[in-house]
Amino acid sequence: MRFRQLFFTALFLLTNASVFAQSKDVKLPANWFNLDLAQDGYFGISTEKAYKELLKDKKPRQKIIVAVIDGGIDINHEDLKDILWTNKKEIPGNGIDDDGNGYVDDVHGWNFIGSKKGNLAYDNLELVRIYREYVPKYRSTIKSTVLDSTQKKEFELYTKVTTEFGKKYNEADQTFSVIVAINKLMDSVAMIHKKTIPSLEDIDSYKAEDETEEQVKKIIRSGSKESGSIEKFHKEIKDAYKQYDVMLKYNLNPKYDQRAELVGDDYSNAREKFYGNNDIMGPNAEHGSHVSGIIGANRKNTIGINGVAAEVSIMGIRVVPEGDERDKDVANGIRYAVDNGARVINMSFGKGYKWNKEVVDEAVKYAEEKGVLLVHAAGNDNLNVDLEDNYPNKYYDSPEAIAYRKKMEKEAPKPIPLVPLNSRMQNQGMVRPSPRSTAKPVADLTKFNLPHASNWIEVGASAYKNDATLKASFSNYGKYNVDVFAPGFMINSTVPDSKYEELDGTSMAAPVVSGLAALILSYHPELTAPQVREIIMKSVTKVIQKVKLTNEKGENTRAVFSDLCVSGGIVNAYEALKLAESYAKKK
Predict the structure, then answer these.
(1) Does CATH number 3.40.50.200 belong to domain 31-56+64-81+281-311+318-412+446-585?
(2) DSSP letters along 531-561, please?
(3) Please, which domain of life does this record's source organism belong to (predicted)?
């Protein structure tokens, strides 16, 4: 019964996706994110207009190093190989730390999640790591158990992650069941017709064996329409199969942990710096390669795509596996980038829990002191990050923040009683029932004035059409915590083996902004990180119309764009460069 009901749920989601999302049933220019709304009809950031009209008679003053902290970069890609940062102080392949920075043969960057034994491809979600840490300690805790203040906080966190773990596991398990069924039917129909990918006509002519298969056929038809073609839908299903397989085998599996074996660092020492290897490509370089191409894919060749910035060097720093990044690695990645000359750091990753925020805060402060701009993707869960935790972030765990948090904890309502998880997860802990409330969530404005980094810019994702569907339906948002939006929907960029693909995400929007920051700095290297941030935010194209939004209560609404981000608009290279010129003249 559960399986059958799930198909109806999946079908409903697929057939109603178009209500609040722009259609993928469209052929976009490969570089639409660089185009101009008025001249070209696509809500890009006017990069090409800027090059043609503002920069045609100007020469860049400096090549800017942009560090891409991610999951790996294909250093052999035809459109990336010539724009990679190269450590000229290091002799490649001699096994010696020639420049004495503690990293042997770091020619194009460093990999903090590997060793001589290999590379860490997968890891848990942070909430699973927290769960694994606390479950031996609090599994048997009951209402009458006496706990000290520290234990009470730990137990509160334990119950929170256990709740979310159970929810995520169940959702992933159910979704994977649907994906398996879709994948199976498509493969079966393809085999009948001796094809790799079946046509929609093949799907229609297939005689379903039961009601479940009939529902799968409907999902395939609906999904193919939304994706633009059955070929695109087929690829999305194959990708989803891999994603959810990894999620269940590794991300949500408390028994999986190969950190000690494949990285070999002292994980308990958060300030340990010298570990890893020089393989910045790693086992899966799709995400990091795509990000890198958006920033600076070679504009001087006649192949592939054009990145936003022309005079840029991409430094590869691998800290993100398929799973959640670890705070220790993020901190070391930031420090490595700063110490090796990066002016901009792109961080297209994030998570809902922290392990050691202090060490990340220290690295962010280090970058702030050294004048390095940090560009961070807001996330892809359509969450209001004014209300939901999202890490890393610009807020420091300062004494003021700690004091304020303690004050709020005293005023917080009592926790909801524990109830058992479902039978599949029964032996892994307890969950809380979700409280139902009709009250609209209210952002805590006081905490937004607590100490935070001045060199941080948070980026949401926009789509190509200037209408009510401009906000990418998946993008996180926040009136106070998301600074700007940038193109992040159907973005064509570089992927391994010198190929190109369209991907969606705030992970794609952040490098648009990183590329813009590098473009500004290449012509005005004297500008500070806070100034570049200010220029980017002040020069946005304001969004006048209301846009579609599924809010915190799950309601389909319309919102003014200034309620979705601080600047109320989409970044614009043309206007940013004009404003940067005026800043430079004041110097």
Answers:
(1) yes
(2) HHHHHHHHT-EE--S-EEEE-TTS-EEEE-G
(3) Bacteria
